Amino acid sequence: DKNGLPLDEVVIMKVDFERFVATLTTTEERYVRFKMVNELPDRTAAAALSMSVEKLHAMKATIRGKIEDYFTA
Questions:
Q1: Per-residue pLDDT tens for 24-59?
Q2: Which residues of 36-64 are buried (b: 16+ CB within 10 A; e: fewer)?
Q3: What is the 3-state composition of the chain as percent helix, strand, coil, each rounded to the nearest 5?
């Protein structure tokens, strides 16, 4: 593991992340995957999602709130 974490911890983090992603809207999930898997910049992700960069930034704020709520609950 390149992070130096034990395999069981990596698996737990992945499962927890997948559960979190399942709580997102389809558009939010697509954005998260564009950022994490494809490593797209926001302008490219916004274009792929057919939205303005401003709308994307508003969605990011919503996602941040969901992250905080999910992982601190």
A1: 999 999 999 999 889 999 999 999 999 999 999 999
A2: eeeebeeeebbeebebeeeebeebbeebe
A3: 75, 0, 25
